[in-house]
Design a protein that fits this description.
Number of strands: 7
Largest sheet: 7 strands, mixed
Order of helices and strands: EEHEHEHEHEEHHH
Number of domains: 2
Strand content: 15-25%
Strand order of the largest sheet: 6-5-1-2-4-3-7
CATH architecture of the largest domain: 2-Layer Sandwich
CATH topology of the largest domain: Peptide Methionine Sulfoxide Reductase, Chain A
CATH class of the largest domain: Alpha Beta
CATH superfamily of the largest domain: Peptide methionine sulphoxide reductase MsrA
Oligomer: single chain
Distance between the termini: 33 Å
Number of helices: 7
Length: 209
């Protein structure tokens, strides 16, 4: 599987388990990560947010200022019948340069870093195996961290940062309006969306009609 998107600067990856599906969180630039994984077959839902810090319900500004200990993240719910945890881990390395030493931050800030958060021992093992597979293809050391998290420290970002590119730059899709309308209509039917996101998509469909 390949994530067709430009390389990112500061991603973070987190996976979550639920009753019928599994969840993954990725981040910074969380707009880019959300856009990349939103196009992967088997992904059901994406939500941007903040993970790993000490403050409850932080704001985007607080996180970017490095005062909360959070990292920008994207929670992705996926259908495990269509895509595996291991495949999503493998796709993670395609979204950024995991050898970039800027991810280490040297204690300055954690809001932009390369991390995989896991919630079970099985997830930790698969994430580590994926990291090793990727490391064997590179001549520089991967600096991505693999860290335990139960998901309770993930907080949803403000509405304006959800489906950011869809909300801000959808008009470029008008080059093939008919195709876009059909795909957006299907997207609404098959994905769980925040109310504001759904309204934004419906507005796009109306504008392109």
């Amino acid at each position: 599987m390949t994530v067709l998107h430009r390389k990112l600067d500061h991603p973070i990856l987190i996976f979550r388990r639920s009753s019928s599906v599994r969840r993954i969180l990725l981040a910074e630039s969380f707009w880019d990560v959300e856009a990349a994984y939103g196009r992967v077959d088997g992904v059901v839902k994406t939500v941007t947010g903040y993970c790993g810090g000490s403050l409850r319900k932080p704001t985007y500004r607080e996180v970017c200022e490095g005062r909360t200990g959070h990292t920008e993240a994207v929670k992705v719910t996926y259908d495990k019948r269509k895509i595996s945890y291991a495949s999503l881990c493998d796709a993670f390395w395609e979204t950024h340069d995991p050898t970039n030493k800027e991810f280490l931050n040297f204690g300055i800030s954690t809001h932009q870093r390369s991390v995989i958060f896991y919630s079970t021992e099985e997830e930790r093992r698969k994430a580590q195996e994926s990291k090793i597979r990727r490391q064997m293809k590179l001549n520089r050391r991967i600096v991505t961290k693999i860290i335990a998290s139960d998901g309770a420290d993930f907080f949803t970002a403000e509405n304006q940062y959800q489906k950011y590119y869809l909300q801000k730059y959808y008009r470029i899709l008008a080059m093939d309006g008919g195709l876009v309308i059909g795909r957006l209509a299907k997207f609404i039917e098959t994905h769980e969306l925040l109310k504001k996101t759904r309204l934004a998509i419906e507005e796009v469909i109306q504008d392109l009609s």
